[in-house]
Amino acid sequence: MRVAVCQVNSRADRDENLRVARDQLERAAAAGAELAVLPEYVDYLGPGDTAPKPEGIDGEFAQFFANAARELGLWVHAGSFHESGPDARRTYNTSLVFDPSGGLVARYRKIHLYDVEIADRVSYQESRSVAPGDETVVAEIAGVRTGLSICYDLRFPELYRRLAVEGEARVLVVPAAFMMHTGRDHWEVLLRARAIENQCYVVAAGQIGDHDPGRTCFGRSMVVDPWGTVLAQAPDTVGIVTAELDLDRLDKIRTELPSLANRRL
Ligand SMILES: NC(=O)CCC(=O)C(=O)O
């Protein structure tokens, strides 16, 4: 299966963000991808006071990507968006996956929220405006079991173990808006660790560049194979990169180095 990771720089202009996302999906389809993955908060990355009204999973955002999937004949993982939440103060940070007929096949709400204070560098309290999800999700994408997660989830290996073991996932998807400050040292290491320890392909699409004041995202979207090899990595620009997921190779690695089977519980 050929996958494309789409790296974008979403800002405070929702219509422009969606236009750029659509453009990336068209590039992915033209490059022969079967699945295209967009980053976290592909709808809007800007100040809270100008944020668009949150929507349900039957709103305009979902319709936009359902149409794109159908028109391009592509599996689309629509990164994440601001889904209306459990109360007036909070949204969910939600991923939707569409099949090539435009059907919604999965919804995942980010479980681990980014509440971090790193002196003079990062100050972020995601839980002030976002409610956490409480369900793990494995979707059947083009016949391949695919575990869903979002950005900060990447730091919690027990989630991915569950996706790979109980959920029998062979691909792990990570849409992200990983910070520049942490991304430099942590992004690639964590993605490769999740791939190696769970013997899965990891498909990670990141936001790139400056967003609202004080927030710069690391980018370097990538696809990692179950051996931990980086198959494709985006440069520091908006654009797509593609890679081929070879599931026979995954089976061979799991047979020859059966670390999942050798777990002692
Ligand atoms: N949007 C996020 O969850 C940010 C995660 C991040 O940057 C990290 O270091 O973790």
Automatic annotation (TrEMBL):
Signal peptide: none annotated. Residues 1-247 form the CN hydrolase domain. InterPro entries: C-N_Hydrolase, C-N_Hydrolase_sf, Nit1/2_C-N_Hydrolase, UPF0012_CS. GO terms for molecular function: hydrolase activity. PROSITE patterns: CN_HYDROLASE (PS50263), UPF0012 (PS01227). It holds the Pfam family CN_hydrolase. The keyword Transmembrane helix does not apply. It comes from the Bacteria. Keywords: Hydrolase. CDD domains: nit (cd07572). The keyword Cell inner membrane does not apply. PANTHER family: DEAMINATED GLUTATHIONE AMIDASE, NITRILASE-RELATED. Belongs to the carbon-nitrogen hydrolase superfamily. NIT1/NIT2 family. This is Carbon-nitrogen hydrolase family protein. The lineage of its organism: Bacteria, Bacillati, Actinomycetota, Actinomycetes, Micromonosporales.
